[in-house]
């Protein structure tokens, strides 16, 4: 750890001395990458050891990050960095394996669904092969189960099973001593991710009950309902973890509130930006990127990260969903609306996450 910090500080210092820039990795990485991709600084290189097809649109990557990576807790996610058509792109994915696999074998897995029209997920499905190297950022997120053990209910939908797989593997391996229930919603039987793993977990970990519910096999859709909760013993005492499409998460939250389970006992992680009501006032406006000396106009609900990229800037970013804070920048003036909450900022100076900030009138940013 100390060696890594020293190496990183030295590069940072060198970068500032030689090139007067704050991001030496951006200068050195292309050079280092040519010599050995495992030396790059901005992210931890991870070799793809294996690709496992889970369903028609979901595959699991077995990765071996270099040992300088700091590891993770079950339920956390990482930003990955890949080169798609000569452009480096970052995206966020949950780790689907247990931290125990990392500690014992130096491996982690990501389980990735193809998003129609998505640039990175389609590249991962169509181009990525075993033997290639991708970048992995440090893990983050607080979708973590309580310690010491408490009764837990997981409600997952589709690819939202990924952080839950990591948690269940870890709970089984550490003999988490409390009732654990998983309700896993998928459209059809063919969409079940890691069915055999789930069955094996339920067989060897007696605290765990797994119910897989298909929503679109019958004549009419079968969604989460109050009766599903009637079958869960002691539901009022459970810590509830939600991960899945917004519709499922909203429905689950309503049904839990009806049972007097309040938000302090409900934990969720979302895979896409929830669209808050951004109000009635007209959005968009003139944006000044002060450090770059660029002025551009914006219209509608475009966020500042997209606006900056369209203007040819390359701001630091990770998830593009308001989670990782890597895109945080100083706004020096103007009002922005937060895409997650619908709240408008004050007009003055403050730090904002540009990926979820939509200008409302003229805005100036330190970029
Ligand atoms: C904390 C977190 C954990 C995640 N974990 C996983 C995981 O374990 N497995 C997994 O498969 N995915 C996961 N995701 C979702 C994943 O990050 C996105 O699917 C991915 O970023 C899409 O990248 P792309 O380049 O293919 O799509 P883009 O080219 O970025 O997007 C194409 C279009 O789809 C829209 N879009 C982007 N993401 C989504 C989405 N999730 N749902 C619907 N529309 C979207 C965009 O607004 C855009 O219009 C996670 C997301 C977050 C925030
Ligand atoms: S890019 Fe992650 S919060 Fe903005």
Automatic annotation (TrEMBL):
Residues 41-146 form the FAD-binding FR-type domain. It comes from the Bacteria. One of its GO terms (molecular function) is oxidoreductase activity. InterPro entries: 2Fe-2S_ferredoxin-like_sf (IPR036010), 2Fe-2S_ferredoxin-type (IPR001041), Beta-grasp_dom_sf (IPR012675), Cbr1-like_FAD-bd_dom (IPR008333), FAD-bd_FR_type (IPR017927), Flavoprot_Pyr_Nucl_cyt_Rdtase (IPR001709), FNR_nucleotide-bd (IPR039261), MRET (IPR050415). Pfam families: FAD_binding_6 (PF00970), Fer2 (PF00111), NAD_binding_1 (PF00175). Its cofactor is [2Fe-2S] cluster. This is Ferredoxin-NADP reductase. It comes from Marinobacter subterrani. The lineage of its organism: Bacteria, Pseudomonadati, Pseudomonadota, Gammaproteobacteria, Pseudomonadales.
């Amino acid at each position: 750890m100390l060696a890594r910090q020293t190496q990183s500080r030295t590069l940072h210092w060198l970068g500032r001395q030689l090139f007067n820039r704050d991001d030496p990795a951006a200068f050195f990485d292309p050079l280092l990458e040519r010599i050995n991709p495992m030396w790059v600084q901005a992210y931890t290189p991870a070799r793809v050891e294996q690709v496992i097809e889970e369903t028609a649109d979901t595959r699991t990557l077995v990765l071996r990050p270099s040992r300088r990576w700091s590891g993770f807790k079950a339920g956390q996610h990482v930003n990955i960095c890949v080169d798609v058509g000569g452009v480096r792109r970052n995206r966020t994915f949950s780790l689907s394996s247990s931290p125990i696999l990392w500690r014992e074998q130096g491996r982690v897995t990501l389980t990735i669904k193809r998003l129609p029209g998505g640039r990175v997920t389609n590249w991962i499905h169509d181009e990525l092969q075993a033997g290639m190297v991708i970048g992995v950022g440090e893990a983050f997120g607080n979708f973590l189960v309580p310690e010491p053990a408490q009764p837990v209910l997981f409600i997952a939908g589709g690819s939202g099973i990924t952080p839950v797989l990591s948690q269940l593997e870890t709970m089984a391996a550490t003999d988490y001593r409390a009732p654990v229930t998983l309700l896993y919603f998928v459209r059809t039987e063919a969409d079940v991710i890691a069915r055999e793993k789930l069955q094996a977990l339920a067989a060897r970990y007696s605290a765990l009950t797994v119910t897989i519910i298909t929503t679109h096999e019958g004549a009419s859709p079968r969604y989460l309902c109050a009766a599903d909760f009637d079958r869960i013993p002691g539901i009022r005492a459970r810590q509830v973890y939600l991960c899945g499409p917004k519709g499922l998460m909203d429905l689950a939250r309503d049904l839990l509130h009806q049972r007097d389970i309040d938000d302090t006992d409900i934990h969720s992680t979302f895979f896409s930006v929830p669209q808050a009501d951004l109000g009635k006032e007209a959005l968009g406006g003139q944006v000044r990127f002060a450090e770059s000396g660029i002025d551009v106009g914006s219209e509608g609900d475009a966020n500042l990260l997209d606006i900056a990229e369209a203007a040819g800037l390359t701001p630091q970013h990770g998830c593009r969903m308001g989670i990782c804070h890597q895109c945080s920048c100083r706004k020096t003036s103007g009002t922005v609306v937060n895409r997650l909450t619908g709240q408008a900022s004050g007009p003055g100076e403050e730090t904002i996450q540009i990926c979820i900030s939509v200008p409302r009138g003229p805005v100036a940013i330190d970029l």
